Amino acid sequence: MELDDIQGIVARGYSTLKSACFLMLAVTEPAAARAALGRVAPRVTDAAAEPPDTAVNLAVTADGLRNLGPLPADLDGFPDEFVSGMTDPNRSRLLGDVGENAPAHWRWGGPATPPVHVLVMLYARDEERLGRLETELRQDLLTTGGLTDVVRLTTAALTDREPFGFRDGISQPLIEGLPRTSRAVAAREGGAATGDVVKAGEFLLGYPNEYGLLTDRPVLPDGDDPAGLLPRAPDGADFGRNGSYLVFRQLHQDVEGFWSHLDAVTRRPDGTPDAAARDALAARMVGRWPSGAPLVHAPRQDDPRLATDNDFGYFTTDPDGLRCPLGAHIRRAHPRDSLDPRPGSADSVAIGRRHRILRRGRAYGPQPEARPSGDGESGLHFLCLNANISRQFEFIQHTWLNNPNFNGLHDAPDPLVAPRNDHRSTFTEQARPLRTRHLDLPQFVSVQGGAYFFLPGLRALRYLCAAEPAGGRR
Question: Could you give the CA distance from residue 121 to residue 100 in angstroms, rounded to a whole number?
Fold first, then answer.
């Protein structure tokens, strides 16, 4: 893997850089914008090594690519879902972005808000370093014209918990070809971690994916790159190589509503709260206890010793959902060995590898340990990377999370994150002799903004900043 040409966020989530913010910018004058981005491009962090104090990564929307100018206006070679954008009406229906989640209500990225063209992601070891980094970058980006501020998104200090209070970031795929992947595989008994290791082409353009193929990517005629800035492919100058698609969605989490609802439905017959029953129901909806322990291995109570346990399947251990309910969030987001046509087999696991994403999100707002009364708006800036938005992110969102008939269920979309478009949402706890059904779940997560971005390789980024528009393109 060409780590010095890959942006660093692909290889790592910057776990040592606890502070972060995201700057959304708009292109107002293409030539000046290219010059401004050119000043920042040398500071963009690559994937070769863990950055010690700060990191900068940069991505561009389809409209941003059009406005910057060097690429063909039709963006030939980019996929339809990226070109049309997240707010296309057909995409909105597919993703469940209707009703309360509709782009018309979004705070950014929607049709009623200023356009977003460029995303600048800033990370630092602490808030002081982040402030200095942002000041320096703003000087390069915004003081000479060409780019304007749209919105600045802040984040909470990075911890291992998401706003509902559950341990997060446990189940991440390992990218084949990264040095850290080889070390992780070797550290496991027998050196076998095949269920976790995913081909680089599932996340990066220009590498074989889980089908053994190269995902379609934008390749330009050689004449469009006379300076030879881009990698070469057999059919031209490879603008896509070492790039990825970044999905960004701001998800508001109704933390107070979530726990209040669970309190209400788990009260004892005399009306007093039952904290143990409340926490158990929350764990069954998530599929893990707050510590991170999976219900498959800890079905009755939390076991912090299993906090990072990710070595399990469903088909052999829990095919009927008696330990981890069939509709639990983690069972939908990553079904592991339970996929047709041969659940429990290596083929089932292989199918799952074709629908993995790299999550790089950051929480915002007051977090569980800092929320004295549940006040304050909290949520997740959900970021994920994939080489095929349709087959990866959109498939997970539509076919697994939002699907009311997932795993043979009925009227049962994801109990945690799915929209409640028809106000019918059921969560079932499988049990013998009788199951328990929780009806009319309210909506706990709503979309506040979003966009699809292209995260270019560093050579492609330099080309984007340096190249002049070709004649007849605009």
Answer: 28
Instruction: Output the six-digit token pair for 176.
Output: 């084949």
Amino acid at position 343, single letter: P
DSSP letter (8 states) at residue 287:
S
The arrangement of strands across the sheet holding 232-233 comes to 219-220, 236-238, 232-233
Mean pLDDT of the chain: 93
As beta bridge partners, residue 58 has 120
Please state, in angstroms and rounded to a whole number, the distance separating the CA atoms of residues 271 and 230: 67
What is the maximum alpha-carbon separation in the chain? 79
Residues whose CB falls within 8 Å of the CB of residue 143, separated by 6 or more in sequence, listed in order = none
Answer yes or no: are the C-beta atoms of 225 and 240 closer than 8 Å: no
Q: What is the pTM of this model?
A: 0.95
Query: If you average pLDDT over residues 78-99, what whole number do you get?
Result: 97
Rounded Cα distance between 324 and 465, Å, is 50
The predicted structure's pLDDT at residue 467: 74
Query: pLDDT tens digits, residue range 187-199?
Result: 554 433 446 899 9
Give residue 124's pLDDT band: very low, low, confident or very high (50, 70, 90): very high
Q: Are strands 197-198 and 174-175 parallel, antiparallel or unpaired?
A: parallel
- Do the Cβ atoms of 13 and 464 come closer than 8 Å? no
| Amino acid of residue 281 | L
